[in-house]
Amino acid sequence: STVLDVRDLQKHYGISKGTVFKRKVGTVRAVDGITFDIVEGETLGLVGESGCGKSTTLMEILELAAPSHGSVAVLGKDVGKLAGKDRKSIRRDLQVVFQDPMAALDPRLPIGDIIAEPMVTHGFSKEHIGKRVPELLGLVGLRPEHADRYPAEFSGGQRQRIGIARALALEPKLIVLDEPVSALDVSIQAGVINLLDELKAKLGLSYLFVAHDLSVVRHIADRVAVMYLGKIVEIGDVRTVFEAP
Ligand code: ADP
Ligand code: ADP
């Protein structure tokens, strides 16, 4: 079944010149009519050089920006048309792992609290959270007794694991990975990618894996979509895209 369905998504920005006498001089088609889907258990790599429109696409999928045109459906529900309870359920089903784990983790909180936060927000019981936090730490390869430590006490790779544990807290179906290893040393990138791959198989997740570098998604993506100037210029099986001349 389809987990994410993006149809003819567009985002246009007006460009203005001047400050006091401001006039519109043109339009940037940051996202120019892109269509793709992700099925259950699949990893789609969304790749392309800086400025091609990846962040804008993500912002629209995460509802942080309204599309100029088109639709985004998560688990068959059009996110633009949801209200109330349905909206909240979409926020459980779709989670994000960010590029910079440090920016995403509150330095004042022990990591147990950071991981627990989405469950607190969604009204889970203390008993549930108390069982779930050590379980989540174990899933990402950290020790339960680490729950009392602060983000600064961990390495970059460990921090990204904390971000992943937090994203898993509400048992999402789809995780958006926004350059999840780009800020990490090359030597530890493979460990995080392998963990993501293992978690996907174990938990039946689907991923939208965004990266500027095609090689990062080579071993984890099932399919790859290549963006250029706001459009998907190529989409297909990972081997086919890599073998393209
Ligand atoms: P990427 O994430 O692939 O680097 P972006 O989505 O950030 O690409 O940017 C796509 C295009 O849209 C770029 O040309 C960028 O300059 C432009 N853009 C992004 N945000 C804005 C904005 N708020 N106003 C005007 N142009 C923007
Ligand atoms: P609210 O407090 O209104 O429920 P949220 O804080 O749950 O809002 O999310 C606001 C928006 O930010 C949502 O569209 C959500 O998809 C997005 N978002 C940003 N970061 C995350 C994250 N780590 N996990 C899930 N959604 C996130």
From TrEMBL:
Highest taxon listed in the record's lineage: Bacteria
Domain ABC transporter: 15-245
Family, as annotated: Belongs to the ABC transporter superfamily.
Protein name: Dipeptide ABC transporter ATP-binding protein
Portion of the full sequence shown: 377 to 621 of 710
